[in-house]
Amino acid sequence: MNEVSLLYNYLAIGGVLFALGLIGFLVRRNMIVMFLCAEMMLQGISVNLIGWGRYHGSLGLPGAWGGQMLVVFIITIAACEAGIAMALILMLARRTGQLDSAAWQDLREEGQPAFVDRQVPEERTEDRIWPQLTPAGIQPPFDPDLPIHRPRV
Amino acid sequence: MPMLLAALPTWEHVLRCPTFWALALGALGLWLLLPTRLRFGNGLGSLLVAVAGGLFAYDLPHLGNWLDQSVFWILAMVTLGAAVATIASQSPVYSAIWFALSLLGTAGLFLYNGAEFLGVATVVVYAGAIVVTFLFVIMLAQPEGHSPYDRLAWGGLPKVLGVVTAGLFVGLLTFMLGRLKDEAAKPIAAEALAQAHENLVANDGILTEKHVANLGRHLFSEHLISIELGGTLLLVALVGAVAIALHGRPRLDQQIEEALR
Questions:
Q1: What is the ipTM of this complex?
Q2: Does the pLDDT at position B256 exceed 60?
Q3: N or C terminus: which one in chain A shows less Cβ crowding within 10 Å?
Q4: How far is residue B66's CA from residue B47's CA, in Å, rounded to a whole number?
């Protein structure tokens, strides 16, 4: 296999993955999606490092394992980050009741104008379709005394 | 080996480059796909992004072997396509699931490049732990699923700026690596190929049979202090997460008041 070409391909794919994560982090408002996009940027960097490791290995350089070592540490840091971010996001969501990062715009600098949504688009009907599980097992007997509607899961 | 900046571009050079058109079309397609989505944004945006991906793949240097090339293209397509769907999905649950698929593609890319342990670790740690944890967080924090702020971006201007920034970023990156690409396009001698393969499957090479043993040896000899620091960092993050979660919980009298309300 052409190793230089493989290196270039991995660098290009890693760069595009990083850029997609960057777009998502800048554009989306849901805190969970922002976090996933941060992880996606880390993935792009990992792809780059793995490509470099392979290339240096094909040249027979002594530091060829360094790329994979760095990715081991990236995974460690990502796990730490996920733990902290989960606790933070749960706490923030409990305070405001939503995952919107614009709900915390009170923390902006003094003199900055507030961000106001122009118009909220209506949810289309084709977006309201949820995945359905195929029914399995025995249907339990219907008890009319039990409440049918659960307001909150 | 010099790898930066083949030559200063002329306009003709830029306009004839498929990567330039791939980035322009991809940026336009992403602008259509991202929320706030236009009426026909979904289909048109997907089409534009697919065309852009095809152009981008067309401009990548060939790996020299159709089997390798097709495996690489499939893995890259899964990774990048799922990444686009992650940032374009309006429901965070679908975003998380698409991100898991993107991680599977990345793990395939790792496996393909001789990082077997890291490919498996990515699936286990990311897709197995992080994405599932975040699905739980979505379930706890946003049980109704769809929300208005997922249908909105920050507004028109930040969306345009984000897409343009990312397009310029990738364009600058591929442009700066121009000489590496010229190098990759040259035909390669059989002896150099054999030498590279020999280096890779040597006793300490990346593709050796004792991959995990070698990885562990390097990890616990050259990077011993780093791995200790990494373990300490995990412990600190664990304590910090518990502290934050307990601190954020409302007190008992507030809970009772809220339950009675």
A1: 0.89
A2: yes
A3: C
A4: 26
Task: Quote the number of domains for chain A.
Answer: 1
Tokens encoding A106: 């009170």
Range of the domain at A11: 3-100
Domain-located, residue A68: yes
In a domain, A85, yes or no: yes
* Confidence (pTM): 0.87
Residue A139 lies in a domain: no
Instruction: With CB atoms and an 8 Å threshold, state whether A99 touches B149.
Output: yes
At A101-149, the pLDDT tens digits run 888 888 888 888 888 877 776 766 666 666 677 888 888 787 777 766 6
Contact A73 B226 (CB under 8 A): yes
C-alpha distances (whole Å) from B123 to each of B33, B165, B227 are 28, 30, 21
**Domain extents in chain B:** 11-188
How far does the CA of residue A132 sit from the closest CA of chain B (Å)? 14
- A47 lies in some domain: yes
- Test the A interface: residue of B113, B122, B168 with most A CBs within 10 Å: B113
Determine contact, residues B92/B142, Cβ cutoff 8 Å: yes
Among A7, A13, A35, A126, pick the best mutation site for testing chain B contact (most B Cβ within 10 A): A13
Q: Does B43 touch chain A (CB under 8 A)?
A: no
Residue of B31 and B153 predicted with greater confidence: B31
Say if the Cβ atoms of B87 and A18 lie within 8 Å: no
B55, B22 Cβ separation under 8 angstroms:
yes
